[in-house]
Amino acid sequence: MEYPIGIPGEIRAKLESPPRCYKVDIANPAARQAIEVDGNSHHSTLGRLRDRRKEAVLTALGWCVCRVSNRDAMRLARCLTLGSDPMLYGL
Q1: pTM (2 decimals)?
Q2: Which candidate in 4, 12, 25, 58 could, as Cys together with 21 as Cys, close a disulfide (CB 3.0–4.6 Å)?
Q3: Where do the domains of the chain lie?
């Protein structure tokens, strides 16, 4: 489930074509922690630029952003479902 994080006007005023909010894949709003699960679209040049901009804005808003690959997220989910130790898979 995605979680929207609003971008205040003073930050948006400094950006070219700013969004009103960024959506993160998983969030703990109370701690301002976000997890982004990156699939293949994040490996393109444009995808990397968008990710860097998004992360810079969220960091400026006091959020800590952690990125994981889709592959690692699926491995972790499998480990949690099966009760395996994620360390066995290098996670």
Answers
A1: 0.76
A2: 4
A3: 3-89
